[in-house]
């Protein structure tokens, strides 16, 4: 489906509005009626402009998880926490759709038409090495977001070692990648300072040498990473809010022609 530039701009504007509203809803007390109105608007817009398949993706991400609420549990607080998680997922998906429209992706389906699917292979996709300080919930959200962009995330610990030592395995993983993310979460506490894990610090120099400007530094708020992150593409994040970090990824990848 080929979209005109005018329609593309309208879609981008509307998607940006939804992302903004999603972020605003995360900072206010949970209101079921308001949430349901927002949910219906998002699902209707996505269905009309991106097809039934994408609407199902949105609907699943808007579904709050069923939890066993024990005696004395603050039910309102649990619902608010779950809703924030759902809205964060929706923001990520909307940002992904926005990126697709901005890069002129003409493979978007007609409304109600199934999207054409091509089996994804490592050989024909952009691959991005992710250096991290630990597999936190935020790390898994990052990995899913990168995958949603159509990019294969490469995590050294997740690929076969084939008898290689840890450093050798990491270098082998970097060899197949076109860019990298350093995801620096708090791992060590030195006095009042939080520092990322040793692995991320060691890999930083190697990544910078290999990928140069195609390294994106995402540093958790409160973590001291050093001058490397200050001199290159860098964005802060918290475990609960990754929207700015995701936006930075899109900007940098687009600048290097990788999305």
Q: State the low-pLDDT regions, or none.
A: 64-73, 106-123
So what's the CATH class of the largest domain?
A: Alpha Beta
Shape descriptor reads globular
Structural domain count: 2
What strand line-up does the widest sheet have?
A: 2-1-3-6-7
Distance between the termini: 19 Å
The biggest beta sheet is recorded as: 5 strands, parallel
Could you spell the SSE succession in H and E letters? HHHHEHEHEEEHEHEH
Describe the protein in words.
This protein is of the alpha/beta class and 259 residues long. It has 2 domains: 5-102; 127-255, Rossmann fold, CATH 3.40.50. The chain contains 9 helices and 7 strands; from the N terminus they run ααααβαβαβββαβαβα. Helix 8 links the parallel strand 6 (215-220) and strand 7. Helix 2 (32-50) packs antiparallel against helix 3 and helix 4 runs parallel beside helix 9 (243-255). Mean pLDDT is 77; it is low at 64-73 and 106-123.
Short description:
By secondary structure, this protein is α/β, with parallel strands linked by helices.
